[in-house]
Amino acid sequence: MTAPRELVVRRDRFGEARVVERERKATEGEVLFRIERFALTTNNVTYAVLGASYGYWDFFPRPEDDTGIVPVWGIGIVVSSNVEGVPIGRRYYGYWPMADHAVVRPTSVEDAAFVDRSVSRTERPDLYQRYHALDVDPLHEEATTDLELLLRPLFTTAWLLADQLMDPAFADPALKTVVVSSASSKTSVALGHTFANTAGRPRVVGLTSPANAATVWSSGVFDEVVTYDRVDRSLADVAGEGPIAYCDVAGNRSLRLAVHTALDPRLERSVAVGVAHSSHLSRPDRPLPGPKTSVFFVPDRAALRAREWGAGPFAERLAEAFRPYLTWARNRLQVREVVGLNAAGDAWGSLVTGDIDPTEGIVVVP
Protein backbone atom coordinates (compact mmCIF):
# COMPACT_ATOMS: atom_id res chain seq x y z
CA MET A 1 0.00 0.00 0.00
CA THR A 2 1.29 3.48 -0.90
CA ALA A 3 2.15 5.63 2.10
CA PRO A 4 -0.17 8.58 2.77
CA ARG A 5 0.92 11.75 1.04
CA GLU A 6 0.33 15.47 1.40
CA LEU A 7 0.98 18.55 -0.71
CA VAL A 8 3.12 21.10 1.11
CA VAL A 9 3.97 24.65 0.06
CA ARG A 10 6.77 27.04 0.93
CA ARG A 11 5.59 29.56 3.51
CA ASP A 12 7.83 32.27 2.09
CA ARG A 13 7.13 31.41 -1.57
CA PHE A 14 3.77 29.71 -1.45
CA GLY A 15 3.58 29.25 -5.20
CA GLU A 16 6.11 26.44 -4.76
CA ALA A 17 4.57 23.08 -3.82
CA ARG A 18 5.78 19.49 -3.52
CA VAL A 19 4.37 16.13 -2.50
CA VAL A 20 5.76 14.36 0.57
CA GLU A 21 4.93 11.13 2.37
CA ARG A 22 3.70 11.18 5.96
CA GLU A 23 2.40 8.26 7.99
CA ARG A 24 -1.20 8.57 9.21
CA LYS A 25 -2.76 6.21 11.78
CA ALA A 26 -5.76 6.61 14.07
CA THR A 27 -5.10 5.99 17.76
CA GLU A 28 -7.61 5.90 20.63
CA GLY A 29 -10.23 8.62 20.21
CA GLU A 30 -9.24 9.30 16.61
CA VAL A 31 -10.59 8.61 13.12
CA LEU A 32 -8.62 8.11 9.92
CA PHE A 33 -10.18 9.54 6.77
CA ARG A 34 -9.31 8.99 3.14
CA ILE A 35 -9.88 12.28 1.41
CA GLU A 36 -12.05 11.64 -1.63
CA ARG A 37 -11.91 15.03 -3.28
CA PHE A 38 -11.43 18.70 -2.49
CA ALA A 39 -11.80 22.05 -4.24
CA LEU A 40 -9.02 24.49 -5.10
CA THR A 41 -10.02 28.15 -5.40
CA THR A 42 -8.57 31.59 -4.73
CA ASN A 43 -10.07 31.19 -1.27
CA ASN A 44 -7.25 28.75 -0.57
CA VAL A 45 -4.70 31.29 -1.80
CA THR A 46 -6.10 33.65 0.81
CA TYR A 47 -5.44 31.00 3.47
CA ALA A 48 -1.79 30.85 2.37
CA VAL A 49 -1.31 34.62 2.17
CA LEU A 50 -2.83 35.08 5.63
CA GLY A 51 -1.39 31.84 6.97
CA ALA A 52 0.91 33.38 9.55
CA SER A 53 -1.31 36.25 10.71
CA TYR A 54 -4.55 34.24 10.94
CA GLY A 55 -3.14 30.86 11.92
CA TYR A 56 -4.09 28.92 8.80
CA TRP A 57 -0.71 27.17 8.79
CA ASP A 58 -1.50 25.80 12.25
CA PHE A 59 -4.58 23.75 11.33
CA PHE A 60 -2.48 20.93 9.90
CA PRO A 61 1.04 21.61 11.20
CA ARG A 62 4.17 20.39 9.50
CA PRO A 63 7.42 19.42 11.29
CA GLU A 64 9.52 21.62 8.98
CA ASP A 65 9.63 25.37 9.53
CA ASP A 66 9.69 26.45 5.89
CA THR A 67 6.70 24.47 4.59
CA GLY A 68 3.04 24.34 5.44
CA ILE A 69 -0.23 22.72 4.44
CA VAL A 70 -2.98 24.87 2.98
CA PRO A 71 -6.45 23.91 4.27
CA VAL A 72 -9.11 22.99 1.71
CA TRP A 73 -12.82 22.20 1.76
CA GLY A 74 -13.71 18.71 0.65
CA ILE A 75 -15.10 15.26 1.38
CA GLY A 76 -13.52 12.46 3.35
CA ILE A 77 -14.63 8.88 3.98
CA VAL A 78 -13.95 7.06 7.25
CA VAL A 79 -11.49 4.18 6.75
CA SER A 80 -10.58 3.53 10.40
CA SER A 81 -12.50 4.63 13.49
CA ASN A 82 -11.94 4.47 17.23
CA VAL A 83 -14.91 6.73 17.99
CA GLU A 84 -18.48 5.60 18.54
CA GLY A 85 -20.91 7.32 16.22
CA VAL A 86 -18.37 7.90 13.43
CA PRO A 87 -18.65 4.63 11.48
CA ILE A 88 -16.39 3.26 8.77
CA GLY A 89 -17.67 4.14 5.32
CA ARG A 90 -19.53 7.33 6.28
CA ARG A 91 -18.67 10.43 4.26
CA TYR A 92 -18.19 13.88 5.77
CA TYR A 93 -17.83 17.38 4.37
CA GLY A 94 -15.33 19.61 6.11
CA TYR A 95 -11.93 21.28 6.36
CA TRP A 96 -9.06 19.05 5.26
CA PRO A 97 -5.37 19.27 4.48
CA MET A 98 -4.22 19.09 0.87
CA ALA A 99 -3.53 15.38 1.26
CA ASP A 100 -4.95 11.95 0.55
CA HIS A 101 -5.49 11.02 4.23
CA ALA A 102 -6.16 12.88 7.47
CA VAL A 103 -6.61 12.03 11.16
CA VAL A 104 -9.15 13.89 13.31
CA ARG A 105 -10.29 13.63 16.93
CA PRO A 106 -14.11 13.84 16.96
CA THR A 107 -16.00 15.30 19.93
CA SER A 108 -19.60 16.46 20.31
CA VAL A 109 -20.57 13.61 18.02
CA GLU A 110 -24.12 13.83 16.70
CA ASP A 111 -25.84 12.06 13.84
CA ALA A 112 -25.45 15.08 11.57
CA ALA A 113 -21.94 16.24 12.50
CA PHE A 114 -19.00 16.19 14.87
CA VAL A 115 -16.38 18.69 16.00
CA ASP A 116 -12.65 17.98 15.64
CA ARG A 117 -10.64 18.66 18.78
CA SER A 118 -7.17 17.67 17.63
CA VAL A 119 -4.44 19.37 19.67
CA SER A 120 -3.58 21.77 16.85
CA ARG A 121 -7.21 22.89 16.50
CA THR A 122 -8.57 23.29 20.01
CA GLU A 123 -8.68 27.10 19.80
CA ARG A 124 -9.91 27.37 16.21
CA PRO A 125 -13.32 28.72 15.12
CA ASP A 126 -16.15 26.19 15.12
CA LEU A 127 -16.81 26.79 11.42
CA TYR A 128 -13.46 25.19 10.57
CA GLN A 129 -13.83 22.29 13.00
CA ARG A 130 -17.29 20.99 12.23
CA TYR A 131 -17.61 17.98 9.89
CA HIS A 132 -21.01 17.34 8.32
CA ALA A 133 -22.29 13.84 7.52
CA LEU A 134 -23.31 14.03 3.87
CA ASP A 135 -26.21 11.61 4.12
CA VAL A 136 -28.11 14.11 6.33
CA ASP A 137 -26.52 17.42 5.26
CA PRO A 138 -29.21 19.88 4.07
CA LEU A 139 -26.74 21.58 1.72
CA HIS A 140 -25.69 18.38 -0.07
CA GLU A 141 -27.04 16.69 -3.17
CA GLU A 142 -24.93 13.93 -4.68
CA ALA A 143 -25.61 15.04 -8.25
CA THR A 144 -23.98 18.43 -7.63
CA THR A 145 -21.10 17.34 -5.38
CA ASP A 146 -18.29 19.02 -7.31
CA LEU A 147 -20.13 22.31 -7.64
CA GLU A 148 -20.88 22.22 -3.92
CA LEU A 149 -17.21 21.75 -3.09
CA LEU A 150 -16.26 24.70 -5.27
CA LEU A 151 -19.03 27.07 -4.32
CA ARG A 152 -20.21 26.24 -0.81
CA PRO A 153 -17.38 27.98 1.11
CA LEU A 154 -17.35 30.96 -1.25
CA PHE A 155 -21.13 31.32 -1.23
CA THR A 156 -21.14 31.12 2.57
CA THR A 157 -18.63 33.98 2.64
CA ALA A 158 -20.68 36.05 0.22
CA TRP A 159 -24.00 35.32 1.93
CA LEU A 160 -22.67 36.27 5.35
CA LEU A 161 -20.97 39.37 3.95
CA ALA A 162 -24.22 40.51 2.36
CA ASP A 163 -25.96 39.83 5.66
CA GLN A 164 -23.44 42.04 7.47
CA LEU A 165 -23.63 44.86 4.94
CA MET A 166 -27.44 44.90 5.27
CA ASP A 167 -27.23 44.89 9.07
CA PRO A 168 -28.03 48.38 10.47
CA ALA A 169 -25.63 47.64 13.32
CA PHE A 170 -22.77 47.54 10.80
CA ALA A 171 -23.63 49.91 7.94
CA ASP A 172 -25.85 52.89 7.23
CA PRO A 173 -29.40 51.60 6.58
CA ALA A 174 -29.44 54.02 3.63
CA LEU A 175 -26.50 52.23 1.94
CA LYS A 176 -27.04 52.75 -1.79
CA THR A 177 -24.13 51.03 -3.52
CA VAL A 178 -21.72 48.18 -2.92
CA VAL A 179 -18.52 48.15 -4.98
CA VAL A 180 -16.75 44.79 -5.17
CA SER A 181 -13.31 44.10 -6.65
CA SER A 182 -12.20 40.92 -8.42
CA ALA A 183 -15.72 40.72 -9.82
CA SER A 184 -14.88 37.63 -11.89
CA SER A 185 -14.04 35.65 -8.75
CA LYS A 186 -16.53 33.11 -7.46
CA THR A 187 -16.89 34.97 -4.14
CA SER A 188 -17.74 38.25 -5.86
CA VAL A 189 -20.19 36.61 -8.27
CA ALA A 190 -21.89 34.91 -5.31
CA LEU A 191 -22.12 38.27 -3.55
CA GLY A 192 -23.70 39.86 -6.62
CA HIS A 193 -26.16 36.98 -6.94
CA THR A 194 -27.08 37.19 -3.25
CA PHE A 195 -27.82 40.90 -3.47
CA ALA A 196 -29.73 40.43 -6.74
CA ASN A 197 -32.13 38.19 -4.83
CA THR A 198 -32.41 40.39 -1.71
CA ALA A 199 -35.30 42.77 -1.16
CA GLY A 200 -34.38 46.40 -0.56
CA ARG A 201 -30.83 45.77 -1.72
CA PRO A 202 -28.16 48.29 -2.73
CA ARG A 203 -26.83 48.48 -6.29
CA VAL A 204 -23.72 46.36 -6.91
CA VAL A 205 -20.80 47.57 -9.04
CA GLY A 206 -18.20 45.00 -10.07
CA LEU A 207 -14.56 45.92 -10.67
CA THR A 208 -12.58 43.67 -12.99
CA SER A 209 -9.80 43.55 -15.57
CA PRO A 210 -10.55 44.49 -19.19
CA ALA A 211 -9.93 40.86 -20.17
CA ASN A 212 -12.68 39.63 -17.83
CA ALA A 213 -15.20 42.44 -18.37
CA ALA A 214 -17.35 40.52 -20.87
CA THR A 215 -17.51 37.47 -18.60
CA VAL A 216 -18.47 39.61 -15.60
CA TRP A 217 -21.20 41.42 -17.55
CA SER A 218 -22.58 38.13 -18.85
CA SER A 219 -23.05 36.83 -15.31
CA GLY A 220 -25.96 39.24 -14.99
CA VAL A 221 -25.48 39.73 -11.25
CA PHE A 222 -23.91 43.22 -11.31
CA ASP A 223 -25.75 46.46 -11.96
CA GLU A 224 -22.62 48.06 -13.38
CA VAL A 225 -19.12 46.88 -14.32
CA VAL A 226 -16.03 49.09 -14.27
CA THR A 227 -12.59 47.96 -15.42
CA TYR A 228 -9.59 48.63 -13.22
CA ASP A 229 -8.05 51.05 -15.70
CA ARG A 230 -11.13 53.29 -15.44
CA VAL A 231 -11.58 53.41 -11.66
CA ASP A 232 -10.17 56.92 -11.33
CA ARG A 233 -12.24 58.21 -14.29
CA SER A 234 -15.57 56.39 -14.09
CA LEU A 235 -16.21 54.79 -10.71
CA ALA A 236 -17.51 57.88 -8.86
CA ASP A 237 -20.14 58.53 -11.54
CA VAL A 238 -21.15 54.89 -11.92
CA ALA A 239 -21.47 54.42 -8.15
CA GLY A 240 -24.24 57.03 -8.06
CA GLU A 241 -25.44 59.04 -5.08
CA GLY A 242 -25.60 58.12 -1.41
CA PRO A 243 -23.49 56.03 0.99
CA ILE A 244 -21.16 53.42 -0.54
CA ALA A 245 -19.42 50.29 0.80
CA TYR A 246 -16.32 48.79 -0.81
CA CYS A 247 -15.70 45.02 -0.60
CA ASP A 248 -12.08 44.32 -1.44
CA VAL A 249 -11.92 40.73 -2.66
CA ALA A 250 -8.80 41.35 -4.75
CA GLY A 251 -6.56 42.29 -1.82
CA ASN A 252 -4.75 44.74 -4.11
CA ARG A 253 -3.77 47.67 -1.90
CA SER A 254 -2.97 49.97 -4.82
CA LEU A 255 -6.46 49.35 -6.16
CA ARG A 256 -7.88 49.97 -2.70
CA LEU A 257 -6.17 53.37 -2.66
CA ALA A 258 -7.61 54.21 -6.08
CA VAL A 259 -11.13 53.18 -5.01
CA HIS A 260 -10.97 55.12 -1.74
CA THR A 261 -9.69 58.18 -3.57
CA ALA A 262 -12.39 57.99 -6.25
CA LEU A 263 -15.26 57.50 -3.79
CA ASP A 264 -14.20 59.85 -0.99
CA PRO A 265 -16.16 61.28 0.88
CA ARG A 266 -19.18 59.06 0.10
CA LEU A 267 -17.38 55.84 1.00
CA GLU A 268 -18.84 54.76 4.33
CA ARG A 269 -17.40 51.25 4.75
CA SER A 270 -14.33 49.46 3.41
CA VAL A 271 -14.12 45.72 4.00
CA ALA A 272 -11.22 43.43 3.11
CA VAL A 273 -12.60 40.03 2.11
CA GLY A 274 -9.77 38.19 0.36
CA VAL A 275 -6.53 38.42 -1.57
CA ALA A 276 -7.35 37.18 -5.06
CA HIS A 277 -4.53 39.32 -6.47
CA SER A 278 -1.75 37.84 -4.34
CA SER A 279 0.99 39.40 -6.47
CA HIS A 280 -0.10 42.95 -5.57
CA LEU A 281 0.26 43.05 -1.81
CA SER A 282 2.65 45.99 -1.49
CA ARG A 283 1.37 48.94 0.54
CA PRO A 284 0.26 52.10 -1.30
CA ASP A 285 2.55 55.12 -1.24
CA ARG A 286 0.17 57.29 0.77
CA PRO A 287 -2.53 56.84 3.44
CA LEU A 288 -6.02 55.83 2.42
CA PRO A 289 -8.62 58.58 2.42
CA GLY A 290 -12.00 57.72 3.88
CA PRO A 291 -12.86 54.96 6.34
CA LYS A 292 -10.38 52.54 7.84
CA THR A 293 -10.49 49.12 6.20
CA SER A 294 -11.88 46.33 8.39
CA VAL A 295 -11.35 42.63 7.80
CA PHE A 296 -14.36 40.42 7.23
CA PHE A 297 -13.73 37.19 9.14
CA VAL A 298 -16.32 34.62 8.12
CA PRO A 299 -16.21 32.49 11.32
CA ASP A 300 -17.06 35.51 13.47
CA ARG A 301 -20.17 36.37 11.47
CA ALA A 302 -21.20 32.71 11.26
CA ALA A 303 -20.80 32.30 15.01
CA LEU A 304 -22.86 35.45 15.66
CA ARG A 305 -25.76 34.30 13.51
CA ALA A 306 -25.61 30.74 14.85
CA ARG A 307 -25.98 32.17 18.37
CA GLU A 308 -28.80 34.51 17.39
CA TRP A 309 -30.74 32.13 15.14
CA GLY A 310 -29.65 28.74 16.48
CA ALA A 311 -27.38 26.29 14.68
CA GLY A 312 -30.26 24.44 12.98
CA PRO A 313 -32.07 27.53 11.65
CA PHE A 314 -28.71 28.99 10.54
CA ALA A 315 -28.01 25.89 8.42
CA GLU A 316 -31.55 25.92 7.03
CA ARG A 317 -31.34 29.59 5.99
CA LEU A 318 -27.97 29.00 4.36
CA ALA A 319 -29.29 25.95 2.48
CA GLU A 320 -32.39 27.87 1.36
CA ALA A 321 -30.17 30.55 -0.20
CA PHE A 322 -27.53 28.15 -1.54
CA ARG A 323 -29.72 25.78 -3.56
CA PRO A 324 -31.01 28.45 -6.02
CA TYR A 325 -27.48 29.78 -6.45
CA LEU A 326 -26.19 26.29 -7.20
CA THR A 327 -28.89 25.84 -9.83
CA TRP A 328 -27.99 29.21 -11.36
CA ALA A 329 -24.26 28.38 -11.40
CA ARG A 330 -24.64 24.89 -12.87
CA ASN A 331 -24.48 26.04 -16.49
CA ARG A 332 -21.99 28.83 -15.85
CA LEU A 333 -19.10 26.97 -14.26
CA GLN A 334 -17.07 24.18 -15.84
CA VAL A 335 -15.55 21.70 -13.40
CA ARG A 336 -12.00 20.57 -14.16
CA GLU A 337 -11.08 17.39 -12.32
CA VAL A 338 -7.41 17.03 -11.38
CA VAL A 339 -6.22 13.56 -10.41
CA GLY A 340 -3.27 13.10 -8.04
CA LEU A 341 -1.44 15.45 -5.69
CA ASN A 342 1.35 16.13 -8.18
CA ALA A 343 -1.18 17.48 -10.66
CA ALA A 344 -2.80 19.38 -7.78
CA GLY A 345 0.53 21.09 -7.19
CA ASP A 346 0.54 22.36 -10.78
CA ALA A 347 -3.03 23.59 -10.41
CA TRP A 348 -2.11 25.31 -7.16
CA GLY A 349 0.71 27.18 -8.90
CA SER A 350 -1.74 28.47 -11.51
CA LEU A 351 -4.08 29.72 -8.81
CA VAL A 352 -1.30 31.60 -7.05
CA THR A 353 -0.21 33.36 -10.25
CA GLY A 354 -3.80 34.06 -11.27
CA ASP A 355 -3.45 32.04 -14.47
CA ILE A 356 -6.95 30.56 -14.31
CA ASP A 357 -10.17 30.77 -16.26
CA PRO A 358 -12.87 32.44 -14.10
CA THR A 359 -15.50 30.14 -15.62
CA GLU A 360 -13.56 27.04 -14.51
CA GLY A 361 -13.43 25.35 -11.13
CA ILE A 362 -10.75 22.90 -9.99
CA VAL A 363 -11.65 19.76 -8.04
CA VAL A 364 -8.81 17.49 -6.92
CA VAL A 365 -9.10 13.71 -6.53
CA PRO A 366 -5.95 13.00 -4.52
**What is the gyration radius calculated from CA atoms?**
20 Å
Number of strands: 18
Largest beta-sheet characterization = 9 strands, mixed
Q: Specify the structural class.
A: alpha/beta
Principal-axis shape: globular
Rounded to the nearest angstrom, the distance between the terminal CA atoms is 15 Å
Helix content: 25-40%
Strand percentage, roughly? 25-35%
Instruction: Give, in order, the helices and strands.
Output: EEEHHEEEEEEHEHEHEHEHEHEEHHEHE
Tally of DSSP helical segments? 11
**Poorly predicted sequence stretches spanning 5 or more consecutive residues:** none
Mean pLDDT reading: 90
What does this protein structure show overall?
This protein is globular. Strand 14 (244-248), helix 8 and strand 15 (267-272) form a beta-alpha-beta unit. The longest helix is centred in the middle third of the chain and has 21 residues, at 145-165. It has helices spanning 42-49, 51-54, 126-129, 145-165, 186-196, 213-219, 231-239, 253-263, 298-309, 311-329, 341-353, and strands spanning 5-10, 17-21, 31-40, 67-68, 71-81, 91-97, 101-104, 106-107, 113-116, 130-133, 177-180, 203-208, 224-227, 244-248, 267-272, 293-295, 334-339, 360-365. Helix 4 packs across helix 10 (311-329), helix 7 packs across helix 8 (253-263) and helix 9 crosses helix 10. Strands 3, 5, 6, 7, 8, 9, 10, 17 and 18 form a nine-stranded mixed β-sheet that branches. Strands 13-12-11-14-15-16 form a six-stranded parallel β-sheet, with helices on both faces. Strands 2-1-4 form a three-stranded antiparallel β-sheet, covered by helices on one side. With 366 residues, it is an alpha/beta fold.
